[in-house]
Design brief:
Strand content: under 5%
Order of helices and strands: HHHHH
Distance between the termini: 16 Å
Largest sheet: none
Structural class: mainly alpha
Length: about 130
């Protein structure tokens, strides 16, 4: 079970990893506006806008993944397949962020799909085998 929970812990850090390039983009655009950061982020274009989207999408994906892990753990369905799906999610989400930053839209969308299949697959499988 600790391996699956380790993937969740890593996934919890990913939105903050995704924030690093966003902060850089904000600094390049007149400095970080700590009074109105969301307004500043909304005005970003190009790389900055993509970094912002990767940051927020990381939170969105985390909710789906955390739910899948909680379902799997609570039903006692943690096994090698669940752990493999967990690592698949983590690797896919890292690839997703990189593709967003590099403006690789098509592969990014495919990688997003892989991460969602891993999450929903984990939850559905846990329900079916319990």
């Amino acid at each position: 079970m600790s391996a699956l929970l380790t993937t969740l812990l890593i996934a919890m850090f990913l939105p903050y990893l995704a924030k690093i390039p966003l902060i850089k983009a904000m600094h390049e655009r007149g400095g970080y506006d700590n009074r109105h950061p969301r307004q500043q982020q909304a005005a970003l274009e190009g790389f900055g806008a993509r970094a912002n989207a990767a940051h927020y999408n990381s939170f969105e994906a985390l909710m789906v993944y955390a739910s899948a892990v909680f379902i799997t753990v609570s039903l006692g369905a943690v096994d090698a397949v669940a752990i493999a799906l967990g690592w698949t999610f983590v690797v896919a989400r890292i690839g997703y962020m990189v593709c967003y930053w590099l403006d690789k839209a098509t592969i990014r969308s495919l990688i997003w799909l892989v991460s969602m299949i891993a999450s929903f697959g984990m939850a559905i499988r846990a329900i079916l085998i319990s």
